[in-house]
Amino acid sequence: MTQLMSQILLPHFVTVEDLNSKQVYNLLERAAYFKNGGRKENFKRQINVANLFFENSTRTKLSFTMAEKKLGLNVFPFAAETSSVQKGESLYDTLLTMSAIGIDLAVIRHPQNNYYQHILEQPGSKLNIGLLNAGDGSGQHPSQCLLDLMTIHEEFGHFNKLKIAIVGDLKNSRVARSNMQLLKKLGADIYFSGPSEWFTSEFNEYGQYLPLDELIPKIDVLMLLRVQHERHEETEAEKNFSEIKYHQQFGLTVARYQKMKSSAIVMHPGPINRGVEMASELVEAPRSRFVRQMTNGVYMRMAMLEAVINGRHIGG
Ligand code: CP
Fold this sequence. Notes:
Elements: H1 21-35, E1 48-53, H2 59-70, E2 74-76, H3 91-101, E3 105-110, H4 115-120, E4 130-136, H5 142-156, E5 163-167, H6 174-185, E6 189-193, E7 207-209, H7 212-215, E8 221-224, H8 236-239, H9 243-250, H10 254-259, E9 265-267, H11 290-311
Parallel strand pairs: 1-2, 1-3, 3-4, 5-6, 5-8, 6-7, 8-9
Helix pairs in contact: 1-5, 1-11, 2-11, 5-6, 5-11
Bound molecules: phosphoric acid mono(formamide)ester.
């Protein structure tokens, strides 16, 4: 177990788009250090954090909270439904309030894509708070992406030329967008599958769309996406959505699982629609990494929080 020679310094962690390979490997190394029992030396002062979730969450919210507590941060409760947001206060003014009170870091999940952009670009802003994006609409999900990378790296030790299929509700998926951007940068071969109407032109530059049954025997990683009904429009296709048909055509059935390479792994960001994206009995099957992904999330989020604390020079 080694302490890192170099540290990542990020004033905010809102997207994976700007991360370079060195920073990713640094985060992977640091997360592994924490997972193997490595401890953070005390920060020079108390660091205060609040988790602002304007969309439902189980994993990301609990996992960030666990990571914060493991790092010894002071976690302040915030509930969107009882906050002054309900009186019309904007997200910017909510953060300005928190910053004035002494909150150093805000972990935010929000339904609006790029919600963080206007906050970070506000002219003459007195805001002094580090932002960590816990998911914005269908835009980015940096912590899910990095915990996914950690899980893949633990399995294979590298990303180069790994065949990774991202399957399902691509159009609405911040998990797909974040993962395809970083995995391509790290040398993986990306493929897409699922309903063709959810494969939009933006995905073309990252990988090839192929039928699932063609991909199943040759891929190393099957990354299933949740069908996000809450983001769907009221189209005929949506209204006629059939869980049984989706599972047969695009889901991981037991028959498909049996055709995968013995070294291949199955991933899902959660929450899983059991019997839709994957057969219920495969959720904890030997090749499923669903549980490990959630465990790894705590350690990767510790590494991300630390990177922002370092980037803001508030930890010493
Ligand atoms: N994967 C994920 O973001 O799960 P939650 O919505 O439960 O946080």
